Each structure stands twice: as C-alpha cells, then as structure tokens.
C-alpha cells in the first residue's frame, strides 16, 4: 500500500533535497545537496556536470551527500542526482546572488492545502522596511515584516515569485511549484501516514546535516585560531 501511495503521489524513487530548503542564496553561504534513498549517486550541475566543488562528500546506503561551504553566482543553475544506468532524480534550480535581497521559497514542490511562507530577506538583516511580493510580474502582497504567508496553497498559487524591499533592492525570481492531491479513497489513510513519516524523516536528515555543517564550520574557525 505504501508503494502504491508513493506512486499515486508521483514521488521519485530517488529525490534530491537541499538544506536550507530554499532556491535563492547569498554569495558565500553554505549549501547541502542530498540524494535521498540513493546508493552511490552523484549530484550533477546542468552546465558543469558532476559537482567537484563539494567541501565534503559522503556516499553510502542512506544517501549521497555534497556540502558546498561557499557558493558563488556561477554556482547558479539546476542540479539533480544521477547514477550510471539509472534515471535522474527531480531537479532543483538554485540562484546565487551577490545582491542584497533574496526571496526564500521552498526548493521542492509543496502539496495543495499546506501552508507556505515566502520570506523577503535583506542581507543587512535590518527589520525596518516594507516588503513587496510579486507573482508572474504582478504585485500580490505588501508586508511590514519579511513574510508573505499562503495559508492553504493551491495550484493557482503556482508561479514565478520575486520580492523587493523599499530602499533595499530586489530579489531574483524563483518558481513556486504546487503538487495537486490525487484522491484515492482506498489508499488515503496509508498515503497520509506515509507522507507524515516521510516528512519527519526528511526533517530529521536536514537537522543532522545542518548540525554537521555547523561542526565543520566551528572546526574550521578553531583551526584558524590555532
């Protein structure tokens, strides 16, 4: 039944995940790419091929990991997981900017009915500004905070989003992808349980990966101090 549920929800056998879970990054930020449920797969860039800029890599039964400690604008582009003789995974298209504003939006498709937060983030971390959000070029929301919250996302919310900050600049554009729920009453309870367990597992993996990057970062600082 779980296999049926995974098929109904169009879940890839191998999935590319990213931490933090967003599509835009400031220059010099750290990024983790993780091929979930994959044995000896590699993270591939659409124009560069196999990623050789990983600060740390790990390949094993749980998945394949690539950590980039500092990203640059030329790291922008689509990435996916790939193995010889196998289909490629889903793709994640990131944008790295040297600018002062980014839009934080989910890197992977969100399910209909979920709550989604879009965040207009200023590199200088100032909180005294107005954020304006745009979808497909049209203004859709203004906020005195960083956030635009879609409480129950639907397929009609899918599109190309960007934001700007009054006096602070504008972000690049990123695509928000929404997955429609395919109702199958015979497998609906099992599907619900499967999705909950899968999301919990993914959150645990992301937390562990972020902890790992933090330990690497502090270790690097300690070595520099010595």
Automatic annotation (TrEMBL):
Key words of the record: Disulfide bond, Membrane, Signal, Transmembrane, Transmembrane helix
Entry's Gene Ontology BP terms: cell surface receptor signaling pathway; immune response
Highest taxon of the lineage: Eukaryota
Alphabetical list of PROSITE patterns matching this protein: IG_LIKE (PS50835)
GO terms assigned for molecular function: transmembrane signaling receptor activity
Span of domain Ig-like: 99-179
GO cellular component, one term: external side of plasma membrane
Spans traversing the lipid bilayer: 193-218
Protein's name in the database: Ig-like domain-containing protein
